[in-house]
Amino acid sequence: MSHGGPDAAPSADDAAGVGRNIVVWDVPTRVFHWLAVSLVVAAYVTARLNWADWHAYAGYALLAALLFRLLWGAFGGETARFSGFLASPRAAARHLAHAWRREPDLQIGHNPAGGWMVLLLIALMLGETLSGLYVGNDIAEEGPLSERVPAAVADLIDALHDRFLWDALLTAVAIHLLAILAYATVKRHNLLLPMVTGRKILPRGTPPPRLENPARALLLLACSFAAALALVKFV
Ligand code: HEM
Ligand code: HEM
Questions:
Q1: What would the pLDDT profile of 3-60 be if each residue is shown by its tens digit?
Q2: Contact residues for 146 (Cβ-Cβ < 8 A; gap 6+)
Q3: What is the pLDDT of residue 18?
Q4: Do 14 and 206 form a contact (C-beta atoms < 8 A)?
Q5: Does residue 202 sit in helix, strand or coil?
Q6: CA 229 to chain centre
Q7: Which CA distances in Å does 129 have to 56, 104, 160, 162, 164?
Q8: CA 81 / ligand 1 centre spacing (Å)
Q9: Which of 75, 101, 127, 135 is 20 to 30 A distant from 216 in Cα terms?
Q10: Which of helix, strand or coil describes residue 116?
Q11: What's the rounded mean pLDDT across residues 164-175?
Q12: CA geometry: angle at 45 spanning 43 and 50, to 5°?
């Protein structure tokens, strides 16, 4: 089932001529975002406190959430789909060339530069969870991979988990937050509120993005849990 679309009835805002209050981020995308933020914080806190069990639970939950986001990026609504927001590097560069220009916010999903940042954040979180599974199983010597990997590779995976990927993720998050701050101050675009409410006011006549049925999200979520469970057993 699709919501919205060009044939959607005009809203009261349309009629009043003040712009159109449109849902740009669906519930699954927003829940994924704030859950990922909470779980990264939880993973860090539990690592610092040496709470290995809770660290593992936070990691497994983030892995399931990330697998869901990958599926949602293939089968979700228009603004969640990778094909919808991964622009060419040239388009990303063109977008960045306008970074200092104050202009109206007409963006429906991720902008062409932001799309690449989203992919990087997801990739780094995925790297952190997968290397974590290996580190955990290596210490407990219980994963099938732990026995087959040479010591040098095992050390490298440990270093990736504890230092390199973590540092890269922190750096990417810092850039992510600075970019949101820059949009708020330089361009006066409020990106944060739509990631909370899902909604944004766009010019009249803007077609709302096509969003998918939440039932599809639940089905994909079940698949992600199953896949995460299989990875936890295998890695
Ligand atoms: C996004 C951040 C992180 C995620 C998602 C994550 C995820 C994971 C996961 C899934 C495991 C496997 C747990 C198991 O199956 O036993 C793990 C283990 C581990 N992680 Fe992380 N981790 C993160 C950050 C960190 C950081 C910053 C450190 C420390 C500098 C750290 C240190 C460890 C250690 C020492 C283990 C082995 C724990 C054990 O099983 O005793 N992790 N992590
Ligand atoms: C651990 C920290 C964080 C990580 C890993 C992270 C990751 C992400 C990811 C993966 C997306 C893309 C969402 C999607 O399409 O699924 C995103 C978007 C977004 N995040 Fe975060 N985020 C973090 C912290 C924050 C915080 C603290 C804020 C608020 C100040 C924030 C605000 C936003 C906003 C506004 C967007 C939408 C950007 C746009 O309009 O294109 N993020 N973030």
A1: 444 444 445 444 445 688 999 999 999 999 999 999 999 999 999 999 999 999 999 9
A2: 134, 137, 138, 154
A3: 67
A4: no
A5: strand
A6: 20
A7: 9, 38, 11, 11, 13
A8: 29
A9: 127
A10: helix
A11: 98
A12: 90
Distance 231 CA to ligand 1 centre (A): 15
Extract long-range pairs of 89-93: CB within 8 Å, 24+ residues apart: 89/116, 92/116
Query: What is the C-alpha separation between 145 and 15, in angstroms, rounded?
Result: 61
Ligand 1 atom nearest the C-alpha of 125 is 1
Q: Record the pTM.
A: 0.92
Residues 192-200, mean pLDDT to the nearest whole number: 97
Give residue 84's region: left, alpha or beta (phi > 0; psi -120 to 50): alpha
* Closest to 223 in 3D by CA, of 22, 69, 55: 69
Q: How far apart are CA 122 and CA 215, in angstroms?
A: 23
CA distances from 197 to 6, 25, 31, 115, 155 (A): 22, 8, 11, 20, 43
What is the CB < 6 Å shell around ligand 2? Answer: 29, 32-33, 36-37, 40, 69, 80, 110, 114, 118, 121-122, 125, 173, 176-177, 180, 191-192, 195
Rg (CA), the chain: 20
Residue type (1 letter), 165? L
Q: Strands, E, within the chain: which ranges?
A: 20-23, 199-202
Ligand 2 atom closest to residue 110's alpha carbon, by position in its atom list: 41
Tell whether the torsion through CA atoms of 116, 117, 121 and 127 is positive or negative: positive
In this structure, which amino acid lies at residue 11?
S
